[in-house]
Amino acid sequence: MTTAANGHAPSGENQIPCIFYRPIADNRQSVTENTMVEIQNQHVAPILERMARALERLAGSDCESDSIPDAPVLYWHGHPGRLRPVRHPDLPFLDDLLGLDRQRTALLQTIRAFARGAPANHVLLAGARGTGKSSLVRAVFASVQRDDPDVRLIAIAPGDLATLPDLLERLTDRPERFIVFCDDLTFSSADANYHSLKGLLEGSALAQPDNVLFVVTSNRRHLLPQTTADQAGTRVVDGELHESEAIEDKLAFADRFGLWLSFPPLNQATYLQIVEHWRSRIAPALPGGPQFLDEALRFARRRGTRSGRTARQFVLAALAADQGADDDASAAT
């Protein structure tokens, strides 16, 4: 290609940026083809390098999203579909959970069997709020994990249940054993998460991985509310009660959990026993006795429930009040 006297390409030829042109000696001659290629490479090479680095970052991101962090407790983020380690998990001690001997024994047996490779039933823990359902799951896991470090706990929020197929695909054929734990689960019949979990527990074409166990806690035994409309189809035939199809559907969902553990409200004696346990555990300087326990009962009545959570909250409140009184006394002197 040639240049005009003014250094620009003649009209009718493809225009090439002026960066490809430079004066040679004292005249305005065209640069050679080798010089043009050299200049092109100087500008294209950095662009190609940046593209390569970007592709490497994308590949690394995909690898990271598919990997499973080496941590005992993980959290599943359904969007964008990643497992993150829980760096400071809240894992209670079994000795701090009083009044739950029956539930503790059953859950320990199931989790230990699963951790050692045996088949196990999915678990539903249902009952009144604050009665230790979630704490028992985490305490049992911690106890089992000390002996079987390959067992992991994966927490999943109820809103992320629709992404369970993605999680299960990632866990399939892994050497570890995974407890997928969903806390405080309740939904309506129209909830998409309900149908997703129902199918995955049993009745879906997607096979359940042998190394995954579902553990769910809920304030409702059947996980779904029952309305008066659900009772419309209930009838008595030959002296037998036949539930409506709506109720049967809700019961069928809960039936997919092979182990049901109920958590009724605490009686007064057990509640006071837990109060005294937490007083000696975290506030031994507080004076116990009848007056202290009477205050604990009044605290529970104001909260409308007697539970292990309420007992611990009372002791913490009593400790704060006692320390505040000491500060006031010191300021007065």
H/E element sequence: HEEHEHEHEHEEEHEHHH
In quaternary terms, these chains amount to single chain
How many domains make up the 3D coordinates? 3
Q: By helix and strand content, what is the structural category?
A: alpha/beta
Uncertain segments are 16-29, 59-64
Number of strands: 9
The largest sheet, given as strand count, sense and whether it forms a barrel, is: 7 strands, mixed
Strand order of the largest sheet: 2-1-4-5-6-3-9
Q: Mind telling me the C-alpha Rg?
A: 33 Å
The CATH class of the largest domain turns out to be: Alpha Beta
Summed up, the helix count is 9
Q: What's the architecture of the largest domain in CATH terms? A: 3-Layer(aba) Sandwich
Helix content: 40-55%
CATH topology of the largest domain: Rossmann fold
Instruction: Find the CATH superfamily of the largest domain.
Output: P-loop containing nucleotide triphosphate hydrolases
Shape: globular
State the main characteristics.
9 helices; alpha/beta; 333 residues; two-stranded antiparallel sheet; seven-stranded mixed β-sheet; globular; Rossmann fold; 3 domains
Describe this structure in words.
There is one protein chain. The longest helix has 34 residues, at 33-66. The strands form two sheets. The chain has a seven-stranded mixed β-sheet. Helix 7 packs across helix 9 (308-332) and helix 8 (290-303) packs across helix 9. With 333 residues, it is of the alpha/beta class. Strand 4 (151-156), helix 4 and strand 5 form a beta-alpha-beta unit. Residues 16-29 and 59-64 have low confidence and may be disordered. The chain has helices spanning 33-66, 101-115, 133-147, 164-171, 192-201, 245-255, 268-282, 290-303, 308-332, and strands spanning 73-77, 82-85, 123-127, 151-156, 177-182, 212-218, 235-237, 240-242, 259-263. It has nine helices and nine strands. It folds into three domains: 32-66; 73-225 and 241-263, Rossmann fold; 268-332. The termini are far apart.
